[in-house]
Amino acid sequence: MSNTKWWGKTLKVIGIILMGITAVFTLMAGIGTTCVAVAAENFGENMAPIAPYSWLYILFVLFTTAIGVYMVKALIGLIKKKPYAYKDSIISLALGILIGIIHIAVSRALRGKSMPTDGVVYVTVLTLIVFIIFKK
Known about the structure:
This protein is mainly alpha-helical. Helix content is 76%, strand content 0%. The chain is built from 5 helices and no strands. It has helices at 6-32, 34-39, 54-79, 85-111, 117-133.
């Protein structure tokens, strides 16, 4: 019989589900930023201040998408119960928060708003907290 209690298994499932949601949000955020990164001036006067910084937003696209892929790798490892999965999850979540905070700061400085990046960062922080509290 397994030593893991039913609530321990439930928490692991919740962690896997949260990691999946976070990975999808992060990938969508990275890929979704492409439109603004390459053609900010086409999205109205609200996005126009970003246009001179398209190079920076292209970096946000690349880094955020790469982090999202890393999260998917960690998620697959969690599902398959690989030994590296927890560490990869923590690293990918921390990187997601770091790049997300930078993205938020830049967007607020340039256009006064940072949504939907805020939501992605909030979900990532929640997932990281769950992983830290309920370590393995």
